[in-house]
Every structure is written in structure tokens, then in C-alpha cells.
Specification:
The chain is mostly helical. The protein has a single domain, classed as Winged helix-like DNA-binding domain superfamily/Winged helix DNA-binding domain (Arc Repressor Mutant, subunit A). The relative contact order is 0.18.
Length: 78
């Protein structure tokens, strides 16, 4: 299975949407909510909602925990 297919499978298992994955990738790069909103052309509140959904779906309480868990389960490359 190539990395794209593995990533899609990990997203499906975690219930992470494509847009949430885009937000998660930017979180891993250290972007602020405002920077993510500007880059994805969405409102700050939309980003906050996506981040909240990501934390809930990954069953973590912090952004750093979400990044670490995402790497562990194959959503993000190490």
C-alpha cells in the first residue's frame, strides 16, 4: 500500500475529514489558527471548530498530543 492509500485508510479509521487533515498538517507545521484560516481561506471560527473536532476524534486534549498521536497512527509521516 502506498503512503497516500495508507494515509487515506488512517483518516477513515480515525474519522478525520479531508479538510480536518489539511488543518492537522498545518498544526504539525506549527501554524497558528489565524495562519491556517488565511491559508485555507476560511474563518478563524471554522479553524477552531476543525481543531476541536480533530482533538475529539483523536481523543486528546492538546494540539501537541494530536500531532504525536497522528504520527503514531499513520495520519502524519514522522
Amino acid at each position: 500500500m502506498n503512503s497516500s492509500k495508507a494515509n487515506e485508510a488512517a483518516c477513515a479509521r480515525a474519522g478525520i475529514s479531508k479538510r480536518e487533515m489539511e488543518v492537522l498538517e498545518r498544526l504539525a507545521k506549527g501554524y497558528s489558527n489565524a495562519e491556517i484560516a488565511a491559508e485555507l481561506f476560511v474563518s478563524l471560527n471554522t479553524v477552531k471548530t476543525h481543531v476541536s473536532n480533530i482533538l475529539s476524534k483523536l481523543e486528546v486534549s492538546r494540539r501537541t498530543q494530536a500531532i504525536a498521536k497522528s504520527k503514531r497512527i499513520g495520519l502524519l509521516s514522522s
